[in-house]
């Protein structure tokens, strides 16, 4: 059995790892086929060598490399540079596999659930983390550390090893209890919906860059109607397309995905302790008016977002009316959040973040079911804001804006 393992490692030029594999219980090729990414990391496998081994395991199992192990769950570090040795060994595979790798496209992966309980480490990983605090071990190379930690784990008396395993088992039981409780929460439900919309969005074909664009006359009328809508927010919601239409499905999926990403961005900013604004707690009028006007001037060369007289009407409505309509209030918050990027002296970053968070919360609670011209211009503002913030949520908000605009 060890002879087969030695032969495979010699063939793929990873024979240097044979001793550390044998010392840690990987004494046959069948056992190595069940090795995990964490195991290889703790045994000192270089990233390039892990991929070579994973491809060989995939070939043995008759599956594609993308399906083997959990290789897609760990990305290569953006700062990692392959060594010449890694490159030569990677190119030692067959021409057919090299051609398959060239054709293999990157698949986006869903973001992890930041609210879920963290899965505990195994007994061996906890033991290894403790051993690495020993200066005598920490001063060695990574491969030497993995070899020494594996040797100590194998030599550990059964009663001491049992202590580590019992602690890991208790941690796992606590994790499972936390997961059972977490599955009853709104955050879990939202994440499951996100996974569904993400999978749907990944399966749909990409929109053509050379697709049909609306005529200039249609574009002018659309902008005019949208600007009028911004002033009062009372226009009836336009009828949606037939639920079976492809365009509606694409728009709905993109909208759901964008809302999920916006909620994550909102939670990130709220964690900074930003202020919350609403009809009862308005930001200072002079700052808001100055920022909103800066948005109109700053974006005027690119977008026609709102006419000056309509913007002034909305500001007067928000700050002088006894009953404030939610849609103009939300738009004023968004316009001011965008404008604060163009006039950085009109308000602080904390106030600007508070306006954005407040607008997103209002949109989620009052207008998340609206997919008409009003939503188009809201997503135009969200897109501009995200681009100015240099945040990746912009690609989702822009997608929704373009779908609604078409």
TrEMBL record:
SUPFAM superfamilies: HMG-box (SSF47095), SAM/Pointed domain (SSF47769). Signal peptide: none annotated. Residues 63-124, 197-249 are annotated as: Disordered. The keyword Mitochondrion does not apply. Keywords: DNA-binding, Nucleus. One of its GO terms (molecular function) is DNA binding. Residues 117-183 form the HMG box domain. Residues 237-249 have a biased composition (Basic and acidic residues). GO terms for cellular component: nucleus. It comes from the Eukaryota. One of its GO terms (biological process) is regulation of gene expression. Pfam families: HMG_box (PF00505), SAM_1 (PF00536). Residues 63-72, 224-236 have a biased composition (Polar residues). Residues 117-183 bind DNA. Residues 203-212 have a biased composition (Basic residues). This is Putative hmg box protein. It comes from Diplodia seriata.
